[in-house]
Amino acid sequence: MTxxxxxxxxxxxxxxxxxxxxxxxxxxxxxxxxxxxDTMVLKDISFEVRPGEVVSIIGPSGSGKSxxxxxxxxxxxxxxxxxxxxxLVVAENDASGKAHxxxxxxxxxxxxxxxxxxxxxxxxxxxxxxxxxMEAPVVVQKKDKAETEALARKLLKQMGLEGKExxxxxxxxxxxxxRVAIARALCLQPExxxxxxxxxxxxxxxxxxxxxxxxxxxxxxxxxxxxxxxxAFARDVSDKIIFMDGxxxxxxxxxxxxxxxxxxNRTKAFLSRYQSDGATD
Length: 281
What we know:
The chain has 281 residues and is of the alpha/beta class. It has helices spanning 11-14, 65-72, 104-111, 129-140, 145-158, 174-187, 204-219, 231-237, 255-260, 265-271; strands at residues 27-36, 39-49, 54-58, 80-85, 88-93, 99-101, 114-117, 192-196, 224-227, 240-245, 248-253. The protein is 34% helix and 23% strand. The strands form two sheets. It has a six-stranded mixed sheet with strand order 7-8-9-3-10-11, sandwiched between helices. A five-stranded antiparallel sheet has the order 2-1-4-5-6. Strand 10 and strand 11 form a beta hairpin.
């Protein structure tokens, strides 16, 4: 692992309240259903994420994990169900049982509640590292440029990227690019952060760099939803794990319940490939 990997995360920039009972969910998904043509890819999906929780979504390829994340982050629309961010109703069923979206203004407010880190970084190749991090807060959220720059530099330092502010994405390793992407998402100061397979494009050494960053965020009670194939990481960092297969939630519970003591045969079969190494890093 490189020496530049982040060690700690600033509470003022990223920390969220520790999990508390009887609090309003940051994210609420109810009976969500999504189809592509005649193929239903998400079937009656319901779950909540509360402040400070880390929820990992695991499952085989094609199980609907990334599609669910895209529905939650408004990159896809769904046909039926409800989506809420705190008190914001983004979509809910109308009298006919079809999902009705609340409109552009509500979408805009919802987008300010979350950040998203993609598996392939999605950095602007013609922008410097610093501009990549600053662009959305300044251009989309209309935040003060000087304040945003100060926050962006602070986040990049915390990501182990001090001195890389003027570099371009092509000059960085994959792990460095993903850490820039995380800093970019955090610069929006979201209430919840989504990760879509954040290490799938990285080799093992760079994977550990990125996972260490996410672990640090979890220790600071950053609310997160993580689609991942890293079982040991999911077990160690999560408050709740959701196992999906065939577009449905097969099983959910604590890491001990789902990873160590799964109840459903499909979960057991999926996890069996990891038993040889005890699901360790």
